[in-house]
Design brief:
This protein is α/β, with parallel strands linked by helices. Helix content is 46%, strand content 16%. It has a 4-stranded parallel beta sheet, sandwiched between helices. Helix 1 links the parallel strand 1 and strand 2. Helix 1 packs across helix 2 and helix 1 packs across helix 3. The longest helix has 16 residues. The protein starts with 8 loop residues before the first strand and ends with a helix. The mean pLDDT is 95.
Length: 125
């Protein structure tokens, strides 16, 4: 095992998109099942969702990926870690809200599941 510091949160830009639904949420669920997640997962996108909507969407994705064979304790553990920030990537208020969600986090990992034309806005934010 490495002595390098680990990320202490996962921030997923594009949390409402197909990539998140088809690949990322099932992968994070598998990490949780294997005891390798253990950090807050904050979804960020422009859709007018809330934490519960994100959890519902993630659960649907996991049910689809597992053909309905969901490890409920793993899902419940992951669900407690999921939260959502709604906002425009070009607006400072979005990143202020995200910063509030990340209070106490020192090494977040940022995943950009967004079109490349949006990378500059997110990186600058």
């Amino acid at each position: 095992m490495s002595d390098r510091p680990r990320s202490d949160a996962l921030v997923l830009f594009g949390a409402t998109g197909d990539l998140a639904r088809k690949k990322i949420f099932p992968a994070v669920y598998e990490m949780e099942r294997g005891g390798r997640c253990g950090v807050p997962v904050v979804g960020v996108a422009s859709s007018e969702w809330d934490d519960d909507t994100l959890r519902d969407r993630a659960h649907e994705a996991i049910v689809d990926q597992t053909d309905g064979n969901v490890d409920e304790p793993a899902w419940k553990s992951l669900a407690t870690k999921l939260s959502y920030v709604s906002g425009d990537y070009r607006e400072p208020a979005t990143f202020a809200t995200l910063a509030d969600r990340l209070t106490g986090v020192e090494r977040p990992l940022f995943y950009l599941a967004i079109p490349p034309v949006m990378f500059d806005d997110v990186v600058q934010g």
